[in-house]
Design goal:
The protein is of the alpha/beta class and about 425 residues long. Helices cover about 35% and strands about 15% of the residues. The protein has 13 helices and 12 strands. The longest helix is centred in the middle third of the chain and has 22 residues. The model has no long low-confidence stretch (mean pLDDT about 95). Pfam families: MR_MLE_C (PF13378), MR_MLE_N (PF02746).
C-alpha cells in the first residue's frame, strides 16, 4: 500500500525571494588553452610530457593498458577527450554561483537544453528539490557518468549561490567546522618532492598491469622499493592502480608490497566489479588498506560498495558523484558503517565538505605543476584565488562566502548559448 496520498503541488519561490535568472554552461575556449592553463576542471587535460599522462620511463597502468597502441600515454585513448564544464548561475540580485566538473560540450548541451528548465525562475535555496527533479528527469539516459557530472556542476553552483545569499562559507551551511585545519596528502610522480613540501603522505601511480606479466610486476615492486627508500620508512605511501588490475594480480601485488609499509592500494579493479572488490578485501594478505569510489556515482552506487564490504575507505569525487547534495548523503551512509571518506581531488569543493564532517580525515592534492614537484592551483587558471596547501595544510577563509573563489572568464566559451533573461 502506498503512503503517497496525493501528487505534490508545484514548488514555487516564496514571495520576494531571490531567484535564478540565468543558467550558463561553458567549456574552455580551445584544447590548447586548456592544456596551457593547467587543465582547468579536467586535471588530465595537460600537454604532452606531463607525468599524469604517463612518461617514457614510467607509464601509468589503466584499463587500456592491455592494448599496445594505447599503453604508453593515457592521452592516446582520450582520458582528456571531454574536458572541463563550468556552470555559472546568475541570480536576480546579480549574484553568481559557480560549479565545475568534466563533460565538456556534451555536458553543456544537457545543462542548457534540459536541466535549465528546472532551474530558471526557481529559488536557488531549494537545492534538494532541484537535485531531485534533475535526477528523476534524466533517469532514462543517466544515473551515472556524464549526466551525473553535469548535475554535479549545477549542484555546486547552487551551493555557491546559497553561501553568497547567506554570506557564509559552504562549510558553515553544512554544519560548521569539525577540524581547525585540513591535512593533505599529495598525488604525484615524486613522493620525495611531496615530503619536502610538507605533505602528510604521497600517492603515486602503479606503472604496469597484468598484460605486462612477471616483468611488469618486477618493475612495479622495484618502483615501490625505490620510492620507499627515498622517503624513509615512516612517510605514508599509497598506490593508485586506476582500474587496471584483476583480482589475482591485486592479491599478488598486495603480497609483494608487504615489506614496504604501504598505507593503501587504490581502485585496483574496474568500478563495477563489486564482487571482485569484496573478494580482494576478504583475502588481503597485507596490512594495506583497500580503497575505491573515485568513479562511482550517487548514494546508490556507494551503498553497493558499503553493503558488499568492498573497501576500507571510500573516495567519491565531489565534482562527479552528484555534487555537495549527494556527497553529504554518501558521507552519512559511510559513517553508519564506520568507513572514512577521503574524496578524490576536487579542491575547494572537497575542502568545504571535509571541513564539515568528522569522518573525512584528510584531503587529496594533486601536484599538477609542470615540474611535477611544486604546488600550483588544482583548477589551473580557472579561479583567481583558489586556496593552496601550505606545509601540507589547507585553511579556508571564514570571511569568504560560498566556496570562496572568483571565476576568471577569460578562456571560457559557451557552446550552446540561449538568450539571457532580463531582470527587468
Amino acid at each position: 500500500m502506498s503512503l503517497i496520498l496525493t501528487v505534490l503541488p508545484d514548488v514555487k519561490p516564496d514571495a520576494n525571494a531571490v531567484t535564478i535568472l540565468n543558467v550558463r554552461a561553458y567549456v574552455i575556449a580551445s584544447k590548447k588553452a586548456e592544456e596551457e592553463g593547467g587543465g582547468f576542471a579536467d586535471c588530465h587535460s595537460q600537454a604532452e610530457g606531463h607525468w599524469i599522462l604517463g612518461t617514457d620511463q614510467w607509464p601509468i597502468a589503466n584499463p587500456m593498458s592491455f592494448y599496445e597502441k594505447y599503453k604508453a600515454r593515457r592521452s592516446t585513448w582520450g582520458i582528456d577527450a571531454l574536458g572541463s564544464v563550468i556552470v555559472e548561475i546568475e541570480l536576480t540580485n546579480g549574484m553568481t554561483g559557480v560549479g565545475v566538473s568534466i563533460g565538456g560540450e556534451p555536458a553543456c548541451f544537457l545543462i542548457e537544453n534540459h536541466f535549465s528548465r528546472f532551474l530558471e525562475g526557481q529559488d536557488p535555496l531549494n537545492i534538494e528539490f532541484l537535485w531531485d527533479v534533475m535526477w528523476r528527469s534524466s533517469m532514462n539516459y543517466g544515473r551515472k557518468g556524464l549526466t551525473v557530472q553535469a548535475i554535479s556542476a549545477i549542484d555546486l553552483a547552487l551551493w555557491d549561490c546559497a553561501g553568497k545569499l547567506r554570506n557564509e562559507p559552504v562549510y558553515k551551511l553544512l554544519g560548521g567546522k569539525t577540524k581547525g585545519s585540513l591535512p593533505c596528502y599529495a598525488t604525484c610522480y615524486d613522493p620525495l618532492a611531496a615530503k619536502n613540501l610538507g605533505f602528510k603522505g604521497a600517492k603515486f601511480p602503479l606503472p604496469f598491469g597484468p598484460a605486462d606479466g612477471d616483468e611488469g610486476m618486477r618493475k612495479n615492486i622495484q618502483r615501490v622499493k625505490e620510492i620507499r627508500e627515498a622517503v624513509g620508512p615512516d612517510f605514508p605511501l599509497m598506490i593508485d592502480c586506476y582500474m587496471a588490475l584483476t583480482v589475482g594480480y591485486t592479491l599478488k601485488l598486495l603480497e609483494l608490497i608487504k615489506p614496504y609499509n604501504i598505507k593503501w592500494v587504490e581502485e585496483h579493479l574496474p568500478p563495477d566489479q563489486y564482487a571482485g572488490y569484496t573478494e580482494v578485501k576478504k583475502r588481503n594478505p597485507s596490512t594495506a588498506l583497500l580503497t575505491c569510489g573515485e568513479h562511482e556515482y550517487t548514494r546508490w552506487g556507494f551503498k553497493l560498495l558499503l553493503d558488499q564490504e568492498c573497501a576500507d575507505l571510500l573516495q567519491p569525487d565531489v565534482t562527479w558523484c552528484g555534487g555537495i547534495t549527494e556527497a553529504r548523503r554518501i558521507v552519512a551512509l559511510a559513517s553508519a558503517y564506520d568507513i572514512p571518506i577521503i574524496p578524490h581531488g576536487s579542491s575547494i569543493y572537497s575542502y568545504h565538505l571535509q571541513y564539515a564532517f568528522p569522518n573525512l580525515p584528510m584531503s587529496e592534492f594533486i601536484l599538477l605543476a609542470a615540474d611535477g614537484a611544486s604546488i600550483s592551483p588544482y583548477f589551473g587558471q580557472l579561479f583567481d584565488d583558489e586556496p593552496l596547501p601550505k606545509n601540507g595544510w589547507v585553511d579556508l577563509d571564514p570571511n569568504k562566502p560560498g566556496f570562496g573563489v572568483t571565476l576568471k572568464k577569460t578562456h571560457l566559451r559557451r557552446p550552446y548559448p540561449r538568450a539571457d533573461k532580463s531582470n527587468e
